[in-house]
Amino acid sequence: MSNDRIIFFDTTLRDGEQSPGASMTRDEKVRIARALERMRVDVIEAGFPAASPGDFESVKAVSEVVTDSTICGLSRANSADIARAGEALKGAARSRIHTFIATSPIHMEMKLKMSPDEVVEQAVAAVREARRYTDDVEFSAEDAGRSDADFLCRIFEAVIDAGATTVNVPDTVGYTLPVQFAGLISHLKNNIPNIDKAVISVHCHNDLGLAVANSLAAVDAGARQVECTINGLGERAGNASLEEIVMALRTRNDYYGLETGLDTTQIVPTSRLVSTISGFPVQPNKAIVGANAFAHEAGIHQDGILKARETYEIMRAEDVGWSKNSLVLGKHSGRNAFRARMEELGISFDSEKALNDAFARFKDLADKKHQIFDDDLQAIATETDLESRNEPYKLVSMDVKSGSGETPQARVTLWVRGEEVTRTASGSGVVDAAFSAVKLISDTTARLKLYSVNAITSGTDAQGEVTTRLEKDGRIVNGQGADTDIVVASVKSYVNALNRLERGAPTHPQQSGV
Ligand code: KIV
Ligand code: ZN
Predict the structure, then answer these.
(1) Residue 15 near ligand 1, beta carbon < 6 Å
(2) Pocket test residue of 78, 172, 229 for ligand 1, highest count of atoms within 8 A of CB
(3) Mind listing the domains of the chain with CATH numbers?
(4) Atom 1 of ligand 1 has which residue's CA nearest to it?
């Protein structure tokens, strides 16, 4: 690969999933993986196969459907994890095993209780073991940002000798500063004798809001792989955001002179999909993908834009896919047109029944809102997928009453493990009343941590997309629901969160040492 080409390694499905409440099902991961493949992401980290049977199945499913991107599975530096990753990746056209161990003094002493020599030995053994499954092996020095630079040189030299083809430098806790991180990358480049046999990669967290700045500084110093996520999703304050890095490299190509293989017009649709599935709304002023990223409010700016767009715009909205959400289908569109557009969006159906269910939803929605956009179709796919699962709770019907001077009331009927249960409750508004009715039915002790409503498309007939975050016994989940009626969307999202709480909690790689 040319030294002027930046490899994009997307970890939305692994590190992104470590955001509180963002855990995704296998089918949701497959949909996101397909969108990343359409964007021509080089490497997709699909999960951590040893974490749970669900994570294993997701990596396996992604490996079986994605052909154009390399599929990567994370593993700690031990043979059991590596074997599990190797097994999950068997069906991939191109596979990578990503193994890691911590290298900072605090992690080695306090977490691993291992000496630096033992850490090097274990890293080398892990890389050798991983090479039995694939020629493409990445080694990460967890907490490299707070590790000793010479120790990093020593361990990277040893793992490259053992067969690592990528050495990753994670700023795990988001501690480094751009100038310092660039210095670290230069040090590694200049002091590891066999560095020409591996790609230097970086993986930055955003605790100080510097993840993108650190990644770009590292690229300037010679890193040629960046690890990032869509919308900057990830542990705590998140990871470096893919869309910001690629657009910085592209918009400032005069400075960087580097290439990427990405199709940037897929950015906005992919961002929308990740937001819907993860339940993490995108803030309006978020660079590139926020609703206001290309909106000009000040009269003086609008005037300038009309005279010459470049006066205030450094990028074209259509280059990142803002115009992609075009009207695609309407009330009179048939089943074949519906299926074809869904397939173009990477959504396939396991059975005729699933297709028929989704099509019935589409017809129902087209009756209510006439114009159906790609984002509506994504919401239909999410709803159909949720509906098809054998979940404990399901919304059957609801009605609400409110008016000036009246106490809002809601009557909700849920299907609860095979039987219908109805309850009525009042509240400070109809959503509050409806949530109280659901609480009475489910008898849940979960606490509501977040409630947010977004319009999926524009217009007052748009579907509302609601995220409800619940917390129970330290576990956090996000539920989603979409409907043209936002009270119905709210109840659907609450019910979805309750169902997610009932599913097992995934384990995350960095919670359990080696
Ligand atoms: O932040 C981190 O250190 C990680 C590693 C597993 C690469 O996510
Ligand atoms: Zn990370």
Answers:
(1) yes
(2) 172
(3) 7-278 (3.20.20.70), 293-323 (no CATH), 335-385 (no CATH), 393-503 (3.30.160.270)
(4) 172
Residues in a beta bridge with 399:
411
pLDDT at 188: 98
Give the Cα separation of 303 and 312 in Å (integer): 10
Using CA atoms, how far apart are residues 45 and 97, in angstroms rounded to an integer? 9
Q: What is the C-alpha to C-alpha distance for residues 82 and 500, in angstroms, rounded to an integer? A: 28
Residues 6 or more apart whose CB falls under 8 angstroms from that of 306 comprise none
pLDDT at 154: 98
The predicted structure's pLDDT at residue 401: 95
Name the residue type at position 265.
T
Question: Phi and psi dihedrals of 350, rounded to 5?
Answer: -70, -25
Mean pLDDT estimate for the chain: 91
Question: What digits encode the pLDDT tens for the residues 214-226?
Answer: 999 999 999 999 9
Which one-letter amino acid corresponds to residue 182? A
CB atoms within 5 A of ion ligand 2 belong to 15
- Per-residue pLDDT of 149-180, as tens digits, reads 999 999 999 999 999 999 999 999 999 999 99
Q: Using 50 as the pLDDT threshold, list the residues of the chain that sit under it.
A: none
